[in-house]
Amino acid sequence: MKRLILAAFLAGTAFPGLSIQWEYDNFDINTTTCRIKGWSGQQPSSGKLVIKDTYEKDGVTYKINEIAPGALNHLTTVTEITIGANIGTIGGNCYARPWDDISNFNNCPKLKLFHVSSDNTTYGATAGGLLIRFEEQADDILVRVPQAVNTNNGKLTLGSGISDAAQNAFSENTTISTLALSKKFEELHVSGVFANMRGLKAIEAPGNPFLKSQDGILYNEDLTEIICYPVLREGASFTVPATVLAIDNNAFLGAQKLKTIDLSGVSAIRKNAFAKSALSKVTLPASLTDIGEGAFRDCSYISSVTFEGQHSLGQAAFKGCHALTTANLSVDIKFDRDSVFEGCGFKSIVFPAGSVPQNYDIGSFSFANTPIELLDLSALDTSEHSISLMGNITKGCNKLTTVKLPTSVSIARVNLDESCTFGANSAIKELSMGTFSSVGAPAFLYTEGNHMPRLYVQATDAEVCRWYFQAFFEVQGEASVRPLIFIDAYKLLYNGEESDWYVYPTASYYVPALARKNYTKAIAAGVTVSEMFELTVDKNSGEVHVVNRYPNDITFQSVSVDGGELEPFDAANNVNLGTELKNGTTLRIYYKFRDTQFKTDYPIAEIATSGIESATTDHAVVKHEVYTLSGTFVAAGDGEADLTTLPAGVYVVRSADAAGNTTVSKVTNK
What's the average model confidence in pLDDT over 356-360? Predict the structure, then answer.
């Protein structure tokens, strides 16, 4: 008997942890209204959820007049929802914005019906359980279709009283395969209405004067825009009709069976038009000038993109296309906003030759979080306009070790945390460049670790010689940077004088033969300045001879006098220029330092002597420093480095003589 009484007691008791619990906010004592903020606890076992009209707090009865964005998501077992009489706003859907997404009832896979109190003057429900919004002096607006709404063998026909729909009104629905629109359903706010319909195969619009349906695809009245391509429409390929000029927002969003598409004649692709679709290759015709935000975002199968003209790419246009490894990028492709190719699969990005147009930017995060190893913009012609690099363009590119920039670059400042050009603690080891038109933010920001990047500065032909290395690097916390800066200019001058902008306190500078004496600002600052090679110029014999001081890194190519014919070096690095040298003014030497093309102009009157500055210098090593290949400091001392006490491996040894000349070499310790 006691057991039966206890069972009856438990059955009639409501335990808070076993029932749904509402969370409220926005209490207004003047209007005595509040808002549902969210829910917790257990969903009703009956599957039927009722949203009350009022809530009592501190002796005051508040009318529940609003549901916050996202407050009623993830009701995974609910089949029916009843909305109270006082609700006038759901998510972003309100009096001022009746076509906005209600931002609720997502991830409700079993939801079949909406009910609304008959006393509610804002929202209502159709006989089939669709949630609608009443509009004064107009037909009703469809605001949400249940994800598991009942259909007639997969077909849902909208009633004649519904003339419009809110954004994402059909989102996540799985039961509708054919959708028939009423004759009154208008085009005005239709963009994005049908996004994320997971079972849709066809849309019909019989007798509708505002919309047209052909082969199950929904168009605008004059067939100039595609509004919706059903996600499960049969066919792996599709040719856009010749009348179509634009692909509307979300039109092909999530199209699961479409692999290829012919976009000939299309001029605009709008926001999220092909996002999450199954396209594998994309060709964008010359007619297509505008590609909207997220147009191809998260297309997991796209492996290549071919640009056939000048295109403007919106924010995140190809973001998340992980299989995308091939695209013919150039300055014809304008990065309109940020994150255009973030998260793609590029292993190298190389722009072909082309003149940089005015105000050309590569936006923030454009290539972030990609596996690129090389970023090469060096072929671009910046004689008329500089190229601007925004913040964090390669953030998270942990394999990126080599960057090649054109002769003129602007480093732009953007309002981002840890803002720098290449992302904090970049793995870049080698960067070649010309000059900067401006530096508004650091190119390199280091917050941890020890770093020793190499900079190859092609300064000889720079028209405006600005090298803001003091702003180029930023170091925070315990991080350190010891850049090796290789410069091909005989002299670094700005407005005819040497500026100290190029001096970075922890850098080591490597300059052409006979040029060390011209880098007085660096020498005065106490940093190391060394000559990369030795040079002998004999006017009488016409002989020019060079000796590589930086082992295995320099390849001498040719020389010219006053822009004349190039004469190659022989195997012993000699050139005989004869009387051309004696009568000339400027000697130019062409050479490669690793993979970077250098050239140095020498005033013949200054350098044509019987010897060179370093010829009488005692090159005996007086001190050394040892680093790992990653730049971590290992040891230092006087004289030649002795690696026998160190573990086996490859080390970087920096040696210096009494004059401050240094050499850096890789040494394998066995």
Answer: 94
